[in-house]
């Protein structure tokens, strides 16, 4: 704007000189001309860069808070690293003790489902893991990106540890180490190969499948099969509606920027919760009377529901505690040996309430409701 004004002044004065037929002050005017064009150029960059970024012509550091459709609905983008670890020793990523590391955040439901698998399959001695700090912070001085940071020392933040493998300050650095031209989000979980110094996979739904089957020569709990052949079709079908309505559904409620998409997401969420409540009135687990992958995937959202999503994501039509079957079911899963160690409510609350200033500008963390998920439940009434 300043540039345009400056050039108008220049043209008027130049006109006056021409009218007077003199070259007096011509150099001063030429200076003004150059300055005006520099100003016009910087002005247009300021306008053009966000426009280009919005339409993905150029890539900027991204986070889930940017994943928005034009109608104001939250739209999650797909994960990028999709290699598969195999029990076949000749594969590129063979299942080996001590070779892989899982970077997680206790706050993140997607990362937590991977950690749950490490714990309940008895893989935590074969596959090491590190949790980042709960609250997003700036990852670079040169841009505004906010993301997951490692603490500077292992005593800074209970539950979180500094990066034992690469000395990275944050998750973003791991992605940049693994790929020089990465342009996606810097998400957890990250399954890291210590040998090749590479990201194997950053998609939790695939990581849990690998943990379920490919490490069975190593796992302490080999017999636990959470995706058995006879249930696969049912698990896939259940995952689909639970992901859309509940797992991702709560994010669609919380990150919506318009009333319509918010209301649509809430409707879908409570239809799915009601459906779960009805199913769990007939059987112990969501796909029958045996624990399956679908239960772990459902649990990670339910355990965060009353503590976070009811308030922070405006999912307040009904609380989990108002659904007797779902509430008791959540306690039942929480009490499976190993599961409770994958839940760190302190990290969960500090992350959500502290990392989304557009939703909670002052970062105040509600004190309640502080539910005891280790209290007795009634799920043993169903045979397993
Ligand atoms: N599809 C991924 C999603 C992972 C994901 O969205 N993680 C979130 C934390 S809950 C994250 O790291 N977000 C970082 C960001 O948005 O910048 C998976 O399931 O593994």
From TrEMBL:
Q: Where is the active site?
A: 108 (nucleophile), 251 (proton donor/acceptor)
In terms of PROSITE patterns, this protein maps to: GST_CTER
Sorted alphabetically, the Gene Ontology cellular component annotations on this record are: cytoplasm
Per the database record, which ranges form the GST C-terminal domain? 228-352
Quote the InterPro entries the UniProt record gives.
Glutathione-S-Trfase_C-like, Glutathione-S-Trfase_C_sf, Glutathione_S-Trfase, Glutathione_S-Trfase_N, GST_Omega-like_C, GST_Omega/GSH, Thioredoxin-like_sf
Q: Which GO terms describe its molecular function?
A: glutathione transferase activity
Origin: domain of life: Eukaryota
What single Pfam family name could you report for this chain, choosing any that match?
Answer: GST_N_2
Q: Where is this site: Lowers pKa of active site Cys?
A: 309, 352
Report the coiled-coil segments.
Answer: none
Query: Under what name is this protein listed?
Result: GST C-terminal domain-containing protein
What organism does the record attribute this protein to? Quercus lobata (Valley oak)
